[in-house]
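Kindly inspect the following:
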Amino acid sequence: MVFAAFVRLMRRADKGNDGRLSIYWWPVIAVGAFFAIFTIIQAPADAFYLLGALLALGTGLYFVARRELVDRLNRSSIHSSADQGDCIGSGGGT
């Protein structure tokens, strides 16, 4: 994934980059990908279990934090609409 992101970033045409990936980067990417795959093949199964557990934990924490953010935004929008008289029973409507 890192190598795909590198290719994508190098193809962007901004900040002095012309939007092309020069030919001399392809061997660098190939060697890096080879070493990454070689390292992954040699990892023990426990490492993959730990990686899966950390990904599951991180995903769970993300959804908890996202839910709290949505709840906080909903509460602030309810309070702001109540301040403007848009709430039912506030006496602001006809």
User: Anything to note?
Assistant: The chain has a mean pLDDT of 79. The chain has two domains: 1-42, 45-81.
